Amino acid sequence: MADQVQLFGVWGSFFGRRVEVALRLKGVQFEYVEEDLYNKSPSLLKYNPVHKKIPQRGPPDTRGDNMLHNGNPLAESLVILEYIDETWKHNPIFPKDPYERARARFWAKFIDEKLWPVVRKALGSKEEKEQREAIGETHEHLETLESELKEKKFFGGESWGYLDIAAMVIIWLGIAQEALGVEFIPKEKFPRLHKWQQRLVEDAVFKECVPPREKLGAFFKARFGSSAASK
Amino acid sequence: MADQVQLFGVWGSFFGRRVEVALRLKGVQFEYVEEDLYNKSPSLLKYNPVHKKIPQRGPPDTRGDNMLHNGNPLAESLVILEYIDETWKHNPIFPKDPYERARARFWAKFIDEKLWPVVRKALGSKEEKEQREAIGETHEHLETLESELKEKKFFGGESWGYLDIAAMVIIWLGIAQEALGVEFIPKEKFPRLHKWQQRLVEDAVFKECVPPREKLGAFFKARFGSSAASK
Lengths: 231, 231
Description:
By secondary structure, chain A is α+β, with helices and mostly antiparallel strands. Chain A has eleven helices and four strands. Chain A has a four-stranded mixed β-sheet.
């Protein structure tokens, strides 16, 4: 029986896009289902086995990173990336060496637990002071990642892998910078990350998974245009 | 060359104890170094390569779950558990099946990102209303875990594994309940979790890694005795 894979995503969210990148790299056929997080229809709730079988997480927790594989619901993009790599073993996204794997996992956690919360704050804050502080913290975390990247082409080395996928949010930051005119990730300050994201968006797989810059930019303007970020 | 392993822990923190459980299960020899999180000595900062090589996290982020293996620093107990299982492959702590592995990882994340923050709040809150709400949320999350445990002996099935180690905090909750006289995890409400933690504390490996109940209880009293929890 062929694998039945459904990805429940939100087009503008990098969480679901991470899963998409891994599925495309592995050549796994999947059906994409767009979720409307803020207006969940009763039928979505009823027929989406993810919401029935795992603790339902309302926005902003439900981030569009749920997957269904042969009837088995999965949630949390970082967990799903591990699952995909263990289930379809060709084109591995993890390094082989346990220590390198641990480093990749550590930095992916860092991105989700340290970087992402301050990025959210920097994007959505209504108060200028709070917003300035959040941008400052964003820069601090990006500096840490810039120095982890070193002179490598990708976090994964010569080719991209798990941590590059986890770090996709940095591409989003660049798009938000263009759209809102705010220096989230200034090129002069983060030359390595800038080149890195350039390599990623030119990659055949990533190209299909990053939303069109204009569309995502327009979304950022509509959603965050009135926040302190754009003043 | 024999493996050189150092565990930098805090005696009362379950984060470092998770690592200890895995090391003992694997029979890995290690040196235990007690960290004083709130009074880091200059020499600790200087000679602890973990703090030099990975972004330093001050309290409450530095949770006593750092390890050094043959000169390689590691941080974050859940990441270290994966590393230990990949480095010393006997007595595996993860299930074999990728879907079971994904479930275990999902619930471990749930414990750290959902359960632990409300437990912290329930323990430390100075306001009665806030504290009551935090206890309510703690119960909700414990109900979810109780129904995930089902009728199994351990989360890992017939024997304990990764998720049981991650869920150790529940033992801490039971000790806090005794010490502070607050119903964090009432027996009648959580019969399965109660039996589960009883099995764990009687286990030869866990017995060595859970601090003496009186000592941990006294710590809870000293630290949280003046909070709303104990009124």
